[in-house]
Amino acid sequence: MSETGSRLRKLLESPNFEPQNYVKQLSQLSDGDRDLQEHRQKVQSLADETAQNLKKNVYKNYRQFIETAKEISYLESEMYQLSHILTEQKSIMESITQALLSTDKDETSKEMQAAFPKETEELKQRTLTSLLEKVEGGKNIMDTPGRHLVYNGDLVEFDVDNMSPVQKVHAFLMNDCLLIATWLPNRRGAVKYKYNALYELDSFAVVNVKDNAPMKDMFKILMFPDSRIFQAENSKIKKEWLEILDETKKNKATKDRHSKEEVAPAPPARAEVSTNPFEQDDDDGGDDNEGPADAEERVDLSLEWIQELPEDLDVCIAQRDFEGAVDLLDKLNEYLKELPVTQRVKALRATVEERVRQLTEVLVFELSPDRSLRGGPKATRRAVSQLIRLGPLLHLTQHKSFAQFGQSTKACELFLKNRAAAVQTAIRQLRIEGATLLYIHKLCNIFFTSLLETAKEFEMDFAGNTGCYSAFVVWSKSTMRMFVDAFSKQVFDSKESLSTAAECVKVAKEHCQQLTEIGLDLTFSLQSLLVKDIKAALQSYKDIIIEATKHRNSEEMWRRLNLMTPEAVAKLKDEMRGCGVGSFEQFTGDDCWVNLSYTVVAFTKQMMSFLEEGLKLYFPELHMVLLESLREIILVAVQHVDYSLRCEQDPEKKAFIVLNAAFLHDTVLPVVERRFEEGVGKPAKQLQDLRKSTRPVRVNPESTTSMV
């Protein structure tokens, strides 16, 4: 059989195998149906064997498949990071190249102006005048002395609300303003445009509009409280507009600043007060009568490391050597403390300013949730520590929006946002499969382990900033809400049984207790967030028990319970003993009968189970909810026994009902009271009052009085 199977396998695996020809030949060679049936069985057994081998190989390599998939995922993440780093380095190199080109362009322009000052100025004036002659209502624009044309071109204006074309315009960018002129539909001679608006350069901001088809090659001009959107002919012209607008605005701001410095009178000699650690009082470097020339002579900025500082900072930022960049800034800070503040020192600070801003942006991005979260809290330690160190040095920059980033509170905020995103991502990636309790074990392990690691890393990074600890406590409570949302969605919203919910809450409490190792107790927060769902679960399960008890009561025949086998009797004894009813054996005999009704036995088991699960879920806010639920459940059974005893006329059944009532009153209710007191820590007065008010009173065998 094995040889035949091997030959058949070789035939089927042959590349020249044709099923139709094979079946045709087989039919011709076979003697009848029997041969075909045998051959069919051989093919079927071979197929089963192949499927079995394939399944074994899959099981054998299952773990390897999982590990390979994880490694592929990690590799994809690393490739994404590498691509981002390369893109970032490319943008840095382009910015450096543009800065060098603009510097060369400025130097060439200055040389031309120095060589032919009058000719250059007159040429600019004539060019602007000739263009403005084509604008209707633009004659008064040349009244301002020194105004000349920088750039001009055609644009299409779009509506800000619905992004539809509005009109075609021509923009004139001058050294101190921007003129917008609309095209005239009916031209009159040399006049092509009509005056529309004139904006001072310092009265608006230019914002690039991201390309999103069909909206392409657009930029926005913001003038409080309005804005206008223009579209260039192509991306190259749009880039020229953005660059030239930005450069012209900077030149005007620099020129205005110099003009104010020249016009402003010299202040009286006094000690200079500054929050900049790179600035020192002029008195520190010499006597009170030291002049600017003497101060300049005392400042030595010709050291090689100072001359190469801007380039070294660029290299450190490009290579992500954050420690080296902060060390250089710290070294410069220490050196400038001993020097007076001069024009050369101010120029050096202005040169370093852009590098400080870039370094701050990179460090902030390192802590942003957009970065890979795979490394855990330790991966953020480097950026956090350097951002904290950079805090005192950020007074170099004149931008307040960047200066605030260097403080410890901002580093703390970015660190906690990063960790919150990591926790949220980990919870989302957790697959909901298998039993609910297994999922909750995984969820608690992921969440509380992340919280514990974050707390330890936070304590290490912000050890010298005790003021940040309150922010961590607030963050912990907010992440706890995230955890409870996922927990409640799986446990309570899916209508799991009360026993499953109790086990899940117990697991969450045990994991929460682990946080006390670092002095963080979030048990109260966990309980306060779960109290609403637990209360609803208790009341829902209480209603289920009451409905089930009423249904059994409606079918009650008041007969002894027959369990049929001794094993079933032994099992019931164990269940009652587990519930705390140790004296249950007195209600059973040597045979398989139990001297209680099925309704009372089922009620006892169900109520004791509810009590045990309720105690697992218990905390002080649920005290009255659990107590009232127990009281309502007990009343249903007691009232049914009372009603049956009053209505029953058969003396034997009446005696049997009294026996069941005594079991409830003298055996079950004391066990409920004792177990409740053990679980809660204080007696339940309501249950005691209920038992006293339902004491059986036997008047005579014929009486129908059962309970008071």
Outline the structure in words.
This protein is of the alpha+beta class and 708 residues long. It folds into four domains: 1-76; 134-258, PH-domain like (Roll), CATH 2.30.29; 320-516, no CATH class; 532-694, Orthogonal Bundle (Tetracycline Repressor, domain 2). The protein has 23 helices and ten strands. The chain has helices at residues 2-13, 19-29, 33-60, 62-115, 117-132, 235-263, 292-298, 304-307, 309-318, 322-336, 343-366, 381-390, 400-403, 408-429, 436-461, 469-491, 498-513, 523-554, 566-579, 598-616, 623-647, 651-680, 685-693, and strands at 135-136, 149-158, 165-174, 177-188, 191-200, 205-209, 218-223, 226-231, 561-562, 593-594. The strands form two sheets. An eight-stranded mixed beta sheet has the order 1-5-4-3-2-8-7-6. A hairpin with an 8-residue loop joins strand 6 (205-209) and strand 7 (218-223). Helix 15 runs parallel beside helix 17, helix 17 packs antiparallel against helix 18 and helix 20 (598-616) packs antiparallel against helix 21 (623-647). The longest helix is centred in the first third of the chain and has 54 residues, at 62-115. It is elongated, with a radius of gyration of 43 Å.
SSE map:
Blueprint: H1 2-13, H2 19-29, H3 33-60, H4 62-115, H5 117-132, E1 135-136, E2 149-158, E3 165-174, E4 177-188, E5 191-200, E6 205-209, E7 218-223, E8 226-231, H6 235-263, H7 292-298, H8 304-307, H9 309-318, H10 322-336, H11 343-366, H12 381-390, H13 400-403, H14 408-429, H15 436-461, H16 469-491, H17 498-513, H18 523-554, E9 561-562, H19 566-579, E10 593-594, H20 598-616, H21 623-647, H22 651-680, H23 685-693
Parallel strand pairs: 1-5
Antiparallel strand pairs: 2-3, 2-8, 3-4, 4-5, 6-7, 7-8, 9-10
Helix pairs in contact: 4-5, 9-10, 9-11, 10-11, 10-12, 11-12, 14-15, 14-16, 15-16, 15-17, 16-18, 17-18, 17-20, 18-20, 18-21, 20-21, 20-22, 21-22
